């Protein structure tokens, strides 16, 4: 069975972790099992802020095991939390009017 293709945020986390010397191969790989430490976590959060423009609270990463998928979810939550209610409503309305194929193409473009 092959692993699912990472979504754009998961792919970004995989790239950042690789740059930090944590060669994750799956969205289920764990930051600390791969050798990540507190200083590496600080570097990861700084890289996320620099490359993705979002500040992720460190405590958001400790709600569960720190896998690639969990880190991606924390980033997505931080991005959504940063939107004003009218911006979020506009994004949701735009997505609501799109087909699954259009959404998939948009996600592929963003990655």
3D structure, described in words:
It holds the Pfam family PP-binding. This is Carrier domain-containing protein. The protein has five helices and no strands. The chain is mostly helical and about 110 residues long. It has a domain at about 10-85: Non-ribosomal Peptide Synthetase Peptidyl Carrier Protein, Chain A. The longest helix is centred in the middle third of the chain and has 15 residues, at about 40-50. The chain is globular.
Spans of 5+ residues with little confidence (pLDDT < 50)?
A: none
How many helices does DSSP assign? 5
Structure class: mainly alpha
Name of the level-1 CATH class of the domain at 8-83: Mainly Alpha
Instruction: Tell me the number of strands.
Output: 0
Instruction: Give the overall form.
Output: globular
User: What is the name of the CATH architecture of the domain at 8-83?
Assistant: Orthogonal Bundle
Mean pLDDT: 86
User: Taking Cα atoms only, what radius of gyration do you get, to the nearest Å?
Assistant: 15 Å
Organism: Dactylosporangium aurantiacum
InterPro entries: AB_hydrolase_fold, ACP-like_sf, PP-bd_ACP
Protein name: Carrier domain-containing protein
Domain Carrier: 4-79
Helix and strand layout, with pairings?
Elements: H1 8-19, H2 38-52, H3 68-81, H4 85-96, H5 100-110
